[in-house]
Amino acid sequence: MEQQQSPEPENIIQPDERWDNASFDDEAAEVASSGTSLTSITSSVLRGKVEDGRVYAVYGKEEYGMPMDDVELDRIGIWSIDVADMFPSANVLGVDIAPTQPDWVPPNCIFELDDIEQDWAWKENSFDLIFARDLILAVRDWPRLIDQAYRHLKPGGWVEFHCVTGIIQCDDNTLPDDSPMRKFSDALAESTRIFGTPIDDPLRWKGWFQDRGLEDVSEEIFKMPCNPWPKDQRLKLIGAFEMENLLYGLSGMVTRLFVKALKWTPEQVQVFLVDVRKEIKNRNVHCYWPYRCRNHRSKRRVTGSMNGVGMI
């Protein structure tokens, strides 16, 4: 469990005091809710596996904790397509364990179905940038993944990992120790440890990268509010997005995880999440997730211009 350190005064998010006496269940204040392949894709891989009403990927050696159905796809979006549109001269490769790729992509973007924890079949020294975002419940051997990323970088290439660290934080004691969000965070930490994908693994990224020969290691830690409680308008918007993300996707995020790791029934999970959702909407509770962004550069000398971008 990550130990909370006292934040610097300038790093404390100021709450929007208009919510101090407001009803946290005020619906008017809420955000409206609501290529090619390295492997032949069989019909069973395309269909996936149904558990407790959600569809999960069946490709790969290990189980991935998140679903791959339309509900999940509406929540997460597509990074590779956006980057391909922004940089038309780059060749962008998106990799996923689930066959969820869209039918239309830019001409400089392709998707491949593969398990990134297995041996990579791409040519070594071939990528200028390898980017990974929110590989939650997906990676069981980060050092091996980092080794492969380093070997497949061009000289001077960059690795960039982004991930939420799902250990809830609060700077002003508005989140009680026995609150639903605290219990949720504790259950998340315990279940991911049992599942083999500890939610606090991003805390160990820096040491793993330094041990494996990358330099210019830099890290930024952002505070991602769980709802629009901050006074700052940008953070308020981020909080609104995260509240929508949690309210809309919470069941898919943890149902398989809690059932398999904690041995809860699906019904127990849904009952537990009722109070969690209520607290997520409470703007008098000033909690946030630490969101880590880590950048690393290969020690080898830079050659050429950006051509290959890999997204995992």
Describe the structure.
The protein has eight helices and ten strands. The protein is α/β, with parallel strands linked by helices and 312 residues long. The protein has a single domain, classed as Rossmann fold. Helix 5 crosses helix 7 and helix 7 (233-261) runs antiparallel to helix 8 (266-280). The two termini are 27 Å apart. One of its GO terms (molecular function) is methyltransferase activity. Belongs to the methyltransferase superfamily. LaeA methyltransferase family. Residues 1-21 are annotated as: Disordered.
Structural class: alpha/beta
> Could you name the CATH class?
Alpha Beta
Mean pLDDT over all positions: 79
Q: Which range best describes the helical content: under 10%, 10-25%, 25-40%, 40-55%, 55-70% or over 70%?
A: 25-40%
| CATH architectural type | 3-Layer(aba) Sandwich
- Enumerate the spans where pLDDT stays under 50 for 5 or more consecutive residues: 23-42, 300-308
Instruction: Specify the biggest β-sheet.
Output: 8 strands, mixed
CA(first)-CA(last) distance? 27 Å
Helix/strand order, N-terminal first: HEEHHEEEHEEHHEHHEE
CATH structural fold name: Rossmann fold
User: Helix segment count?
Assistant: 8
Shape: globular
Total count of domains: 1
Fraction of residues in β-strands = 15-25%
Based on DSSP secondary structure assignment, what is the total number of beta strands? 10
Rg (C-alpha, Å): 20 Å
